[in-house]
Amino acid sequence: MGLVLAAEFGRRRPVGQRGGSGGGKSPDVRHERALVRALPLLLIVVGVVYDISTPPAFTAAPLFTAAPLIAAPFYSLITTALIGAGSCAAVLALHFKSSTTADVEAITELITVATVAVLAVVINRVVRRSDEQLASARTIAEAAQRAVLPQPDHRIGGLDVAARYEAAEADAFIGGDLYAVQDTPYGVRVIVGDVRGKGIGAVAAVAVVIGAFREAAEQEATLEAVAQRLERALAREGTRRDGLDAFEGFTTAVLAEIPHGDGLVRLVNRGHPGPLLLRGDGRLCVLSATEPALPLGMGDLGAWPDRADETEFPPGAMLLLYTDGLSEARDVRGEFYNPAARLGGRIFPGPNGPDALLATLTEEVRRHTGGGTTDDMALLAVRRPLMAGDTGGDTGGDTGGAGADGWTDAGSDVTGRD
């Protein structure tokens, strides 16, 4: 039994991973879980010591009955049964040592421990079956999510592109974060969004939003018209599913359009965290919406025309779009991770810059939260490559310092909108 317990105690449950990241537990959580898993064996040992070192009137039966009950949700069926058998064997051995095996008290104690051990085995089967059903549902949702969120190419429309979907910790549900990049006759068009809700319903909503975006991005001449198409698509689906609330309610999103060769980026923001624009010299700008607008799917509460904001997007600059899983990641003190403050003054050069940026953000968020993130996180970075003759400084016509255009010098503290 000792070998089985040692193997069971040392075995770590695999943690689901997506986008190169796992939802690992923090060190404190791992230590607490290890302590709980060690309790059944410790209780048996303590029970034996207690029974031997105390007068016959005292009994360690509560410790022996607790051991298999604690093992039931943490160990396999065989190990739980072995711990129950070990408890019964310890009770029998102790009474045999004191020559009281025929006493009524000894028989009652043995029957009690054996009954609890059988109940522990039943509890173990129920818990394992529930775990298997939950794992199956999560696997299906993850497969559906990967189908609607394929990894974009590293080069789209002459731009360097990188995307990541970082799952929350292993016990969390699938979220509704989304992204898509498409080269169109009007330029490279991008969407990053977050559907309200979790699970299969959120994945279904993501599929509708992505499908509507890919169709509208090819057909509509303006980014504002693309946003309106998405609004209508969500309204139709909400009606078909008997109400918008049944269809996860609403979707926050930011849409971007990067015309071919113009050195500009246009944005339409529907209630989403503002993107960040990082220049090649380290200056950073938070691209907040000029006129705040309601999320997609809330057209019944009010309607007004979308207006795209236009910003310079020079060679060497990089556009970062993300969901609130990044800006609302908290540390143990409850402080949010501030991507604007963390990235100001930092440079991620070259064609691999987008990948390096997203890898840096992922690692920093993991350290900030201690590995225990509670929300999924979608990240998308788009970089305009340097052309022949470009210096990479991206100074354009701007001067240093935080001017009216919102730019901040490299290394300055930037307060982003979390």
Q: How do the strands and helices of this protein lay out in sequence?
A:
Elements: H1 2-10, E1 17-18, E2 21-22, H2 27-53, H3 61-71, H4 77-97, H5 104-148, E3 155-156, E4 159-166, E5 177-184, E6 187-195, H6 200-219, H7 223-240, E7 251-258, E8 264-270, E9 276-278, E10 284-286, E11 309-312, E12 318-322, H8 324-327, H9 339-343, H10 353-369, E13 377-383
| Alpha-beta classification | alpha+beta
**Mean of all residue-level pLDDT scores:** 80
Helix content: 40-55%
Q: What is the 3D shape?
A: elongated
Number of domains: 2
Order the strands across the largest sheet as they lie in space: 3-4-13-12-9-10
Summarize this structure briefly:
With 418 residues, this protein is α+β, with helices and mostly antiparallel strands.
Structure overview:
With 418 residues, the chain is α+β, with helices and mostly antiparallel strands. The protein folds into two domains: 2-140, no CATH class; 150-383, Phosphatase 2c, domain 1. The chain has helices at residues 2-10, 27-53, 61-71, 77-97, 104-148, 200-219, 223-240, 324-327, 339-343, 353-369; strands at residues 17-18, 21-22, 155-156, 159-166, 177-184, 187-195, 251-258, 264-270, 276-278, 284-286, 309-312, 318-322, 377-383. Pfam families: SpoIIE. This is PP2C family protein-serine/threonine phosphatase. It comes from Streptomyces rectiviolaceus.
